[in-house]
Amino acid sequence: MFFVILAVVLSALEVAVTGFFVLPFGLGAGVAAVAGFLGAPPLVQAIIFLGSSAGFYLALRPLSKRLNSEEPTEGIGAQRLLGAVGTVLERIEHGDSGTVRIDREEWPAECSSPQALIEGQSIRVIEVRGTRVVVEPEHTESLGRGEGTHP
Half-sphere exposure of residue 136, counting CA atoms within 13 Å on the CB side? Predict the structure, then answer.
């Protein structure tokens, strides 16, 4: 029963510890628990635990290194909005906030442009600040009053 409890505790602890460091020992404890249920004496169970833990550790190490060495990819979470094009849903004055639609989502937005953004105008996301996006007109040339483009 000792190795069953150890397997559960170590495997659950892997959730809190990154890098597949504890999981091999939890798996090794599981193998030792199976050996115990098959009638192996405690010393043999301990040797099986150490050997299988070492094997699992060596097997999972390349995966752990690969997962930990990769740089965070762009476009995760709200960062995926950087450079996205959307439409103004309500007028946004410079320094004020309003709402924009990007894809099918509505986002609170701040205007980075010195000119106001009007309803229907096409915008581009240049920054994400928490739950707000900072936007600028998609086309930096001056748009006519009341006219905008739809993406």
Answer: 11
Range list for CATH 2.40.50.140 in the chain: 77-137
pTM: 0.46
Strand pairing class (105-111; 132-137): parallel
- Among 114, 60, 74, 76, smallest CA distance to 92 is for 114
Q: How far apart are CA 106 and CA 20, in angstroms?
A: 38
Question: What number of other Cβ atoms are within 10 A of residue 15's Cβ?
Answer: 9
Q: Say yes or no: domain 77-137 is CATH 2.40.50.140.
A: yes
Per-residue pLDDT of the chain (151 residues; tens, 9 = 90+): 898 998 889 888 888 776 678 889 999 999 999 999 999 999 999 999 999 999 999 998 888 777 766 555 555 566 778 888 999 998 888 878 889 998 888 888 888 888 888 899 999 998 888 788 888 898 754 444 444 433 4
**Which residue from 62, 2, 3, 1 is spatially nearest to 27, judged by alpha carbons?**
3
